[in-house]
Structure formats: structure tokens, C-alpha cells
Specification:
Helix content: 25-40%
Number of helices: 15
Strand content: 5-15%
Number of strands: 16
Structural class: alpha/beta
CATH architecture of the largest domain: Alpha-Beta Barrel
Shape: globular
Number of domains: 2
Largest sheet: 8 strands, parallel, barrel
Oligomer: single chain
Mean pLDDT: 86
Strand order of the largest sheet: 1-2-5-6-11-12-13-16
Length: 457
């Protein structure tokens, strides 16, 4: 029996803290004005995407007391933006990244339940953790959780939030004939949670929302993160968008589901992916090379080299050769708290490899960072990109992709106009929404007591 054709899931990622946006392009717009968010969301909905994904950074990225030169230096509150977008969209899912380390279950559950009501069932929560003191300095605890405790807190945080969401399950509305006031059963919303991280009790004051619970995303790549996703998430936000690494990640995470009594289709694998389009493959490649150069300034190149060298390299010429000195061993003191530092587990070996690459190719520091950094995942004509995305999904490298354009807010427009119709012609992407909730779009079950709406728009 032949394998059934998979339907592709597509989402749009509005960049948060990043080195993706090409600010030098005259079409680059604001990352804080609501018109940018609205344009981006409406384009995604016009293309029938599953959802918009809103990243968040809890502290501006900096090294040596200087903010990264090509970074976004402002981001409005996630819930405020998503609530506003709920008013200018009808079907598009609304996903927000909210940290479980520096928040509390009651307030986050209340905010997501409210968003699910406001959007009529389109809310999703990307659960992330933070282990570094650099971010923690912004919060009253003035510190951070030890690395081994961050997933313990996240698991209990999510469990507690689910208890709050479910505290209204099955309750009926009754009307007082004399006063006309609507009442609920006296037990509605009552909760008690006693655990290692949270000891709370009371009454949850937001009734059962359309989805029952928001769709839950998880973005960790460690073994603990993969296990957390397999046990508790509806989708995992992955960085493995290439075919080989994507298939390995897909197989690993899906294989973990059975131990939690879950089916493979109950967890979607959705990598972040960048793209560049051209009228021909050759033109797209040329555009992609220029985009990469614009994403890495001289200052950015030095900052990223410091992630490996653990030294202040501000005195080096980014258009000159790599440092002759070796990386400093031990605790990272230059780019403290940056997640990217953990990618280089053996800095001395990385430095040796990079020096060999630079010598063989005649690369400067900036050239090296451009060539060893993230490359666009999908580059080519609209037909090439459509065929490649479809091939990756059918090969189980992903269930779909969360697209990150290099221009905001109009960077998604060309994909919507030129690639989506080709995927629709191939019969692997919807021509219209078949339901109204995000769980409908993603093919996920609705929790008991929630109401899924399956009327086409």
C-alpha cells in the first residue's frame, strides 16, 4: 500500500530578537508599529496559513555593554499584540512565546484563556525556558534557575496551567429567573495545586474557552526538551529544516510519543525556515548571497566570533584575518547567557576548523561568519521552492514549516502569491480553511468540553 500524501502545515514567524532582517533594504519596515504586525498577519491569513508565530526576547541582546547592531531593539508585549491581531483576522492562529521561568501559571493561563475567547479559538502558547542570569537580572528574583531545574519548572508550570484551563470542564450555565443573572455550578473554576514549584489554590475566573486549552508548542532541542515535547506539546518548533537532519530529528521525537500513550499525529514537527525567491534558481542564489552579506555587518561578525573565542575582539578588523590567539577556556564571560554559545562545545576545535577554512578560501572574519552561519533553507524559483518543501514533508523531515522572511512586514507577500498556489495545485496545501479554530487547522483533537468549529469560512 502506498503511503498517503501528507498535507503541509505553513506558518509565518514575525522576527523578535534576530539577525535575520535586512535593515538596509528600503522595503524594511517597523518591528513595533501595529501596521507591520497587521500587514504580516493579513498576508498569512490570505495565504491560508495555519498560524502566525510571535517570538519574544525578555532582554535586549548585548555584548560588552553594546546592543547588537543589527538586532531588533524593541518588542511590544506579546499578549497585547496578539489580542490586537485577533481583531483584524478571522481564521489565522495566534501563537505567542511566553517564558515559564519568569512568569506564574495563574496569570499566563488567564491571559491565554482570554486570548482564546477573544480570537474564538485561535490561541497557541510556545512554552520556553530560560536558565541564564543575564535575562534573570530583569526580574525581581534577580537570578535564574539552575539548568537542571528549568524543565522541571516548565513541566509543572504547564501541568498547573492545564489544571486551571480544565477547572471549568463540563459545567453548565443556569439562569436565575428572578435576577436574570447567569450562574455556574459552585465548583466551576475551583483548583488546588500542591507541587515542588507551585502551591496555589483558588478559583480560575475565565470560563472554558473555545479550544479548551491553547495549542502548546515547545522549542527546546536538548534531550530534556524533546522529552518535554513528546509528553506535553502539540507541536515542536525545530531548527532542523534540512532534509537529513530534519528526518533524524523527526524520527527521534516521534519515536518518544508511544511511551506517553500518544499517536504520531498528536505532535507536529514544524522547523523554522528561511527562503529566497527569484524568477530562476540562479537569480535566487544571487539574491541569497547578497541577503547573507546584509545580515552580517562587520560588528555582527566580531560579536559572533566572540561566541567561540570568549574574548573581546572589538580591536580586530572584521575584513582582516582570524585572531592568532586561541579561545579562552572556562566559563563564558563575553557573551554571557547567549544560547548560541552552547552550540560550540569545543571552542579550540572550532577555532582550528575555522582557521583551516579561512586559509583555504582566503576568507576574512566577516567572510567566515557569513559562510559558516545560517544559510537560507529554501532558495530558488517558486516552482523549485514548492517542490522542495513538498519533498521534505513527504519524506518525513517535517510536518510543515514556520517561515521566517528577511523583510518585515512585506517579506511574506511573494511567497503567498507565487509559492502557495503551486502547493495548492499539487494538492498538498489547503485552498481554504475548513474550520475556525487553530486545532482544526492543525488536525489536533479538542480537549473534552471544548467546542471545535468546522464550518468553512
Amino acid at each position: 500500500m502506498s503511503k498517503p500524501v501528507k498535507q503541509i502545515h505553513l506558518a509565518a514567524h514575525f522576527p523578535g530578537v534576530n539577525n535575520t532582517t535586512v535593515w538596509s533594504d528600503p522595503r524594511a519596515g517597523s518591528h513595533i508599529e501595529f501596521s507591520s504586525f497587521a500587514h504580516f498577519a493579513r498576508t498569512a491569513e490570505r495565504a491560508k496559513f495555519d498560524f502566525l508565530f510571535l517570538a519574544e526576547g525578555l532582554r535586549l541582546r548585548e555584548q560588552g555593554g553594546k546592543i547588537y547592531d543589527l538586532d531588533v531593539v524593541g518588542r511590544p508585549d506579546t499578549f497585547t499584540v496578539l489580542a490586537a491581531l485577533a481583531a483584524v483576522t478571522d481564521r489565522l492562529g495566534l501563537t505567542g512565546t511566553i517564558n515559564s521561568t519568569f512568569n506564574e501559571p495563574y496569570e499566563v493561563a488567564r491571559q491565554f484563556a482570554s486570548l482564546d475567547h477573544l480570537s474564538d479559538g485561535r490561541a497557541a502558547w510556545n512554552v520556553v525556558t530560560s536558565w541564564d542570569a543575564f535575562t534573570g537580572e530583569n526580574f525581581r528574583r534577580g537570578g535564574f534557575l539552575p539548568r537542571e531545574e528549568r524543565y522541571s519548572r516548565a513541566k509543572e508550570f504547564l501541568t498547573t496551567a492545564h489544571e486551571l484551563f480544565d477547572s471549568w470542564q463540563g459545567d453548565e450555565i443556569v439562569a436565575d429567573r428572578e435576577t436574570g443573572v447567569f450562574l455556574r455550578d459552585a465548583k466551576a473554576g475551583a483548583f488546588v495545586h500542591e507541587g515542588h514549584h507551585f502551591d496555589i489554590h483558588g478559583r480560575f475566573n475565565v470560563p472554558r474557552s473555545p479550544q479548551g486549552r491553547p495549542v502548546v508548542f515547545q522549542a527546546g532541542d536538548s534531550d530534556e526538551g524533546r522529552e518535554f515535547a513528546a509528553s506535553s506539546a502539540d507541536a515542536i518548533f525545530s531548527r532542523y529544516a534540512a532534509l537529513d537532519t530534519g528526518r533524524a530529528f523527526y524520527t527521534d521525537v516521534k519515536s518518544r510519543l508511544a511511551r506517553y500513550g500518544r499517536r504520531p499525529d498528536q505532535l507536529l514537527i514544524l522547523p523554522a525556515a528561511t527562503f529566497v525567491l527569484g524568477d530562476t534558481d540562479a537569480e535566487a542564489e544571487e539574491i541569497a548571497r547578497e541577503v547573507r552579506r546584509q545580515q552580517v555587518s562587520g560588528a555582527t561578525a566580531l560579536r559572533q566570533l566572540e561566541w567561540v573565542w570568549n574574548r573581546d575582539l572589538s580591536g580586530y578588523d572584521p575584513d582582516g584575518p582570524l585572531p592568532e590567539v586561541d579561545p579562552l577556556p572556562g566559563e563564558h564571560t563575553v557573551a554571557r547567557g547567549r544560547a548560541q554559545v552552547r552550540m560550540y562545545r569545543d571552542p579550540l576545535a572550532t577555532a582550528r576548523e575555522w582557521r583551516e577554512l579561512a586559509a583555504a578560501n582566503g576568507w576574512s572574519i566577516r567572510d567566515l561568519v557569513i559562510h559558516t552561519g545560517n544559510r537560507q533553507n529554501f532558495v530558488g524559483s517558486p516552482d523549485t521552492v514548492a517542490r522542495t518543501i513538498d519533498a521534505y514533508v513527504q519524506a518525513d523531515a517535517a510536518d510543515g514549516f514556520i517561515l521566517v522572511p528577511h523583510l518585515t512586514p512585506g517579506g511574506l507577500d511573494e511567497f503567498a502569491d507565487r509559492v502557495v498556489p503551486l502547493l495548492q495545485e499539487r494538492g498538498v496545501f489547503r485552498a481554504d480553511y475548513e474550520g475556525s479554530t487553530l486545532r482544526d487547522h492543525l488536525g489536533l483533537d479538542h480537549p473534552d468540553g471544548a467546542r471545535g468549529k468546522r464550518a468553512a469560512s
